[in-house]
Every structure is written in C-alpha cells, then in structure tokens.
Amino acid sequence: MTVLSAFQRLESPGVWREGPGARLQDVVVSVGDATLVLSDPRSERPLSHWSLPAVTRLNPGQRPAIFAPGPPDNDEILEIDDELMISAIEKVHLAIRASRPRPGRVRGGLVALAALALLTAGIVWLPDAVIRHAALIAPPAQRDAVGRQILAQLQVSTGAPCARAAGSAVLDRVAQRTLGPDSRVLVLPTTLRGARALPGKLIVLGNELVAGQAAPEVAIGHVVAAQVAAEGQDPMAGALQFAGFGAAVTLLTSGALPDASLAGYAEQLLSHPPARAPDDALLAAFQKSGIPSTPYARSIDPSGESVLGLIEADPFRMGAPDAPVLSDGEWVQLQRICDPDPPPA
User: Percentage of residues in the chain with pLDDT exceeding 70?
Assistant: First the structure.
C-alpha cells in the first residue's frame, strides 16, 4: 500500500500505559507492517503491537493525541504529541480501512449486476417472446385479417386473384381436399415460383403452376408443400416478426395490426423462394392427400439431384393413386381460372 510504505520509517516519542494500574512509560512509536509498534527507547525491545485498522483516537482534535488499540473503553492507551506521527497514524488507519472489502458494497454491486443482467435479458428476450405469444394466441379472425392485409399488398404487384367462376369452384374443392375446412387457395395472375402460405389458412400460387402445366399434380403438390411448411413455420409468426414488437403489442391490445407495420412484407415474400419442409413431412402429406411427390419435385429441380429423396420415396412411385387428383374437366376449368368469365347467354 502506497500510504503505508510512505510512513514505515517514521518514528516519534510517546507515552504508553499498559493498564489501569500501570505507570506511564516513555516509548518509541513506529509504523510497522499494518501495525503500530511501541518499543522501549533504551533497549529497543518491542513492548506492544497495535493493529492500525483497529486504532481508535479517544480525543479527536486535542493535544496530546490519545489512542487506544481498540474500542474507546480499552485500558491500554498511548499519548503522542508529534504532529507528523499523529497525521501518519490517521492516514494509514483510514487507508487500510478503505482498502478492506465491504460486504455491503460487494452485495450491492452484485445486486446491481444481477439487475443489469435481467434488464439486458429482458431487452433481448422480451420482444421475441411477445411476438411468439401474439402469434400463438391469435384467434382465427385476427389471422384472417392479417392474411387479407398481406394479400392486398401482393395484389399491388401481381394483380387481383383470378376469379373465373368455374375455376374458382374447382379450386375450392382442392382446398377442402388437401388443406381441410375453412382453407382457401387463390391463384394470382403472375409467376410466384411456388406457393406461399399466408396467415388465416390462405395459400396463394402463381398462374404458371396452373396454366403452364400438363397435369394438376404440380400445382396441387405446391399447395400441399406450402401447407406443410406453414405447419413448421407459422406464417403469422413470420408476419409479426417483420411487423415488430410494437405492432405485436398493438395486436394484443387492440386486436388489429396497423397496415403500415406490414409495408414491404409482400415484396419480401416474393423475393425469397418458399420455405421447404423436410422430405419426410412432405412425403407423409403427399401420401395422405393421394398425390404423387415426383411432379412437385421435378418442378423444383428438373435434374432431380436436389430432390432425389422426394422422387425415390414417392408414395405412388409404383402405381397411381386410387382416385385422380382432378378429373380432366376440372383440370381444364382450373387452367382457365385466370381467363375472363364468358358473357351471359
């Protein structure tokens, strides 16, 4: 310690009394290793060692200064009149006490660090937790509303969904067969390079998967694949992640998502290829829907290299499904879904 080192060679005279009945005795006072050493001035024999941190001044501000080696009621005392030694004892005493660890201060520091860690964790964890919770508890009506918001944005780039009556009726039957009740499939008059699942049991696909194909298995395969991907990655969660923490809180408190919060989300959906579910999940869904997986796989990669699992494990590789996906007439109507309705007879 710097303060202690500065006074370790300092000596001064003093008067020491060992106890209540003892006589006063002249001593030499010197600063030792965190101690105050009292020595006989003739023989230089140490008479007493006092711990500097425990030294107590009994008469602050008065001369001579009177010290005790502990509490004020201690019977042993030391009188010093040397100003430099008095100052040195007090400075060293204070420096030693200040250097000691203070449990209260350490405990307070630990509490502060723990609070800071909790605050940091809250800042990092809370937004994602709120978004996940909002997506998890969103009722069907909210999901439908968010799906319609995204669809409205898509229409700005792609045009309105194709709605020829005969083709729409076929599409409704496809949705019920492959996706279940309350599901909808819409064809947009553009190229989407696959189908996209939106919140609210809504799937959109581009007309290139319908009008540009020889058979319906490709289009319906993409619909099934989009549904399987949505079961693994909730489209509502994706939309809320884009909208952000504030929008998710608004949805939880007001039941609606601000339109501005989804600005640009449709463009993001179109700029990335659709998410692809694991092969085993896809194959199970194709088998359940009675649809071969090979046409879907070949539409993704004509070479078959990146979709070999879907081709080799096609549930209908050795034989066609018991019932066709669509009749020839239904397929023709679906292919014409983007054509204008014929004029009334």
Answer: 87
pTM, two decimal places: 0.65
**Cα Rg of the chain, angstroms:** 43
Cα dihedral sign for 142, 144, 146, 152? negative
- Asked if 90 and 57 count as a contact pair (C-beta separation under 8 A), the reply is yes
Q: Give which of 280, 284, 281, 317 is closest to 298, Cα–Cα.
A: 317
Separation between Cα atoms, residue 8 and residue 5, nearest integer Å:
5
- Domains of the chain by start residue, with CATH: 2-99 (2.30.29.30), 128-335 (no CATH)
Residue 54: Cβ-neighbour burial (10 angstroms; 0-12, 13-18, 19+): middle
Residue 131 corresponds to which tokens in the numbers above?
């978004």
Dist CA 335 CA 329 (whole Å):
10
Distance CA 322, CA 115 (A): 64
Taking the C-alpha atoms of residue 41 and residue 39, their distance in angstroms, rounded to an integer, is 6
Kindly report, residue by residue over 242-277, the tens digit of the pLDDT.
988 888 888 888 888 888 999 999 999 988 888 889
Phi and psi at residue 147, to the nearest 5°: -60, -40
Q: Please tell me the least confidently modeled range out of 90-99, 281-290, 313-322, 330-339.
A: 90-99
Only one residue has tokens 């399987």, namely 228
Reading the block at residue 136, the tokens are 């998890």
Question: Six-digit token pair at 282?
Answer: 């896809």
Q: What are phi and psi of 9, to 5 degrees?
A: -105, 5
140 burial (CB, 10 Å; 0-12 / 13-18 / 19+) is: exposed
DSSP state of 306: T
Give whichever of 26-40, 54-68, 93-107, 139-153 has the largest mean pLDDT: 139-153
CB-CB neighbours of 19 under 10 Å: 9
The token duo for 36 is: 């105050």
